[in-house]
């Protein structure tokens, strides 16, 4: 549905998007995840034709957004970070304008408007001025605008920022619902939100795509940070001997711990963490090594997120300097 | 384009803008009609229009100040960019809506000569000739206003700059008598103008190369001219100022001549500034 190839965008001297490539299929909820300033909004603005790219290509449903913007934009509904609302109009007048601009006329326009009004739940406020609406309702009017014309792709830039918890839940449910019939891409810097709504996650940091997978796969494949820590009375060489016989043990470190004991940290990428820890325990028990403590620390998506988004900082800056030379 | 046009029209009539614009224009023309046609008993309606043009200095910037600046302030320009309409359609839609707002008071004014004709001899061809001319001249000023509005996200600034530019244009003929008409003075003034053009090009295209190329090119031509024929630059600045004046050309119509070159000039100004407005909008996508 969406194909982004080698997208690069300089904002003045600042490299906002750095050689970004990915492909998005049909009919799922995708999450754009990244810290503030990672290039999420810039990428979305380019994908929707609001910004030009320095280089690279974006294709929506086979139409190039730069070469064939009219066709490509018909397939997209976009809600920018700040809902683009005309404050002195009513939601109905506003939706009329957007619907007309998307090429809807007459009865089809009326039907669509009534349809989206019900879908996003703004029926009670359709005749109030937008400036008088609460933030949650404004956001919904913004989403309604994106839904008009029944676009295949709906792109929402931080749709839940600034809403109260109840509104957030409502908007999330709405987005999940939209994901049944549309391809939805939403951006967020809140991990739990993306985890809750999205089937697939793209993590972006410093303008680069650092991970793109299903939420549960991300957890599984990137769990190299999981750790088994044990406190043992055994001697270092004894520990080495014991662990050598255990299947699945990767790198480990030994440091002197409390009261002459030894702390051993085993890093592992093994998915079956508890199976491994049982084997380690059994091995120690068999060889008579005492264990005072055995702790399993499972890396969460949060750890992965922090790890992925923080490390490339130096690499990204270095690359830009290299390019300038 | 139709969507933008009808949306703009609705917003003008929802707010005071259209009414203020129309009221001022009608008031000034009505006042002129009392002064010339009733009190002085002159039968030429075109004099009234000639008298009324000064009001454009105020009302055109007020009408056009928000047209694009407000979209930017409200961030609704993002919406316009993401909709399947081109920037040309956006600018044209907005411009046509402004023209419609402008046409309504003019339609009312166009009844006046007919009313006066009931009570005496009015030469209608010159009256309607200059009415047509004032429409096109106003349309050119509106195009200038749209462009100025597209440069900023601050309505007030757009209005201020608009008033300054149109006021300068209004008085440029009178001012041209005071500026230096010597070759050196003209050369210096032209150099300043070329620099201003270069800065505008730099701002609109973001290309320093192009700005330098255009600037240096024109400068080189100027130097060449002044070197080969120093006398030719004499009096060129006042001449340019006179030529650029939109208002001065309207006086021809007031004097009873339907000047086609002036019409062509107005239309070129409209096309140029609408083109620049489109470029200015496009440029926002390349920031």
Describe this structure in words.
The complex is a heterodimer of chains A (325) and B (287). Chain A is of the alpha/beta class. Chain A has two domains: 2-219, P-loop containing nucleotide triphosphate hydrolases (Rossmann fold), CATH 3.40.50; 223-298, Alpha-Beta Plaits (2-Layer Sandwich), CATH 3.30.70.260. Chain A has twelve helices and 14 strands. The longest helix of chain A has 15 residues, at 106-120. Chain A is elongated. Chain B is flat. Chain B folds into two domains: 2-177 and 240-284, no CATH class; 182-234. With 287 residues, chain B is mainly α. Chain B contains 15 helices and no strands. The mean pLDDT of chain B is 89. The A-B interface holds A 11, 45, 48-52, 69-71, 73-74, 76, 78, 80, 82, 84-89, 93, 97-98, 100-103, 145 and B 2-4, 6-7, 10-11, 14-15, 74-86, 285-287.
Question: What is the topology?
Answer:
The complex is a heterodimer of chains A (325) and B (287).
Chain A: E1 2-11, E2 14-24, E3 29-33, H1 40-47, E4 55-60, E5 63-64, H2 69-74, E6 76-79, H3 91-101, H4 106-120, H5 135-147, E7 153-157, H6 165-178, E8 183-188, H7 191-197, E9 200-205, E10 208-214, H8 215-221, E11 226-232, H9 236-244, E12 252-256, E13 262-268, H10 273-286, E14 291-297, H11 301-310, H12 312-324
Parallel strand pairs in A: 3-8, 3-9, 6-7, 7-8
Antiparallel strand pairs in A: 1-2, 1-4, 4-5, 9-10, 11-13, 11-14, 12-13
Helix pairs in contact in A: 3-4, 4-5
Chain B: H1 2-14, H2 17-39, H3 45-52, H4 56-64, H5 69-73, H6 77-82, H7 87-109, H8 112-117, H9 124-150, H10 155-176, H11 183-205, H12 208-228, H13 236-244, H14 246-254, H15 260-284
Helix pairs in contact in B: 1-7, 2-3, 2-4, 2-7, 3-14, 4-9, 4-10, 7-9, 7-15, 9-10, 9-14, 9-15, 10-13, 11-12
């Amino acid at each position: 549905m969406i194909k982004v190839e080698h997208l690069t965008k300089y904002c003045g001297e600042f490299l906002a998007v750095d050689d970004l490539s990915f492909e998005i299929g049909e009919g799922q909820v995708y999450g754009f995840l990244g810290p503030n300033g990672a290039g999420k909004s810039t990428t979305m603005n380019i994908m929707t034709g609001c910004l030009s790219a320095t280089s690279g290509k974006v294709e929506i449903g086979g139409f190039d957004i730069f070469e064939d913007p009219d066709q490509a934009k018909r397939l997209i509904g976009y809600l920018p970070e700040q809902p683009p609302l005309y404050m002195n109009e009513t939601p109905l007048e506003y939706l009329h304008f957007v619907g007309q601009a998307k090429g809807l006329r007459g009865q089809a326009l009326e039907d669509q408007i009534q349809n989206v009004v019900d879908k996003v739940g703004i029926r009670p406020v359709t005749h109030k001025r937008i400036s008088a609406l609460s933030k949650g309702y404004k956001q919904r009017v913004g989403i309604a605008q994106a839904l008009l014309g029944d676009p295949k792709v709906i792109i929402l830039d931080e749709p839940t920022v600034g809403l109260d918890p109840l509104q957030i839940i409502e908007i999330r449910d709405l987005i999940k619902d939209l994901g049944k019939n549309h391809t939805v891409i939403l951006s967020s810097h809140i991990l739990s939100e993306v985890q809750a709504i999205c089937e697939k996650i793209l993590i972006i940091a410093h303008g680069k795509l650092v991970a793109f997978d299903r939420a549960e796969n991300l957890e599984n494949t990137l769990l190299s940070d999981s750790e088994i820590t044990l406190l043992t009375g055994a001697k270092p060489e004894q520990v080495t001997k014991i662990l050598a016989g255990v299947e699945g043990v990767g790198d480990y470190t030994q440091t002197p711990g409390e009261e002459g004991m030894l702390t051993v940290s085993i890093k592992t990428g093994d998915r079956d963490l508890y199976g491994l820890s049982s084997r380690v325990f059994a091995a120690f028990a068999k060889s008579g090594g005492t264990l005072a403590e055995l702790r399993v620390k499972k890396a969460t998506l949060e750890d992965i997120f922090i790890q992925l988004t923080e490390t490339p900082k130096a690499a990204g800056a270095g690359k830009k300097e290299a390019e300038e030379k | 384009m139709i969507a933008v046009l009808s949306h703009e029209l609705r917003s003008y009539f929802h707010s005071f803008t259209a009414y203020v614009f129309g009221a001022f224009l009608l008031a000034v023309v009505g006042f002129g009609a009392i002064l010339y046609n009733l009190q002085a008993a002159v039968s030429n309606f075109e004099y009234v229009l000639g008298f009324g043009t000064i009001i454009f200095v105020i009302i055109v910037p007020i009408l056009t100040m928000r047209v694009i600046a407000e979209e930017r302030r409200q961030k609704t320009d993002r919406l316009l960019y993401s909709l399947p309409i081109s920037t040309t359609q956006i600018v044209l839609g907005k411009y046509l809506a402004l023209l419609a707002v402008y046409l309504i008071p003019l339609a009312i004014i166009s009844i006046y000569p007919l009313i006066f004709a009931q009570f005496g001899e009015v030469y209608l061809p010159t009256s309607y000739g200059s009415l047509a001319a004032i429409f096109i001249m106003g349309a050119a000023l509106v195009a200038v206003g749209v462009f100025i509005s597209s440069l900023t996200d601050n309505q007030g600034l757009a209005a201020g700059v608009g008033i300054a530019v149109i006021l300068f244009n209004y008085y440029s003929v009178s001012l041209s008598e005071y500026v230096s008409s010597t070759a050196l003075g003209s050369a210096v003034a032209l150099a300043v103008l070329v620099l201003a053009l270069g800065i505008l090009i730099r701002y609109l295209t973001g290309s320093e190369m192009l700005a330098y190329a255009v600037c240096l090119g024109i400068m080189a031509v100027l130097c060449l001219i002044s070197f080969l024929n120093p006398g030719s630059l004499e009096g060129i600045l006042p001449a340019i100022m006179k030529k650029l004046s939109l208002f001065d050309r309207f006086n021809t119509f007031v004097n009873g001549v339907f000047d086609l070159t002036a019409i062509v000039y107005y239309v070129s100004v409209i096309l140029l500034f609408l083109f620049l407005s489109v470029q200015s909008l496009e440029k926002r996508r390349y920031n």
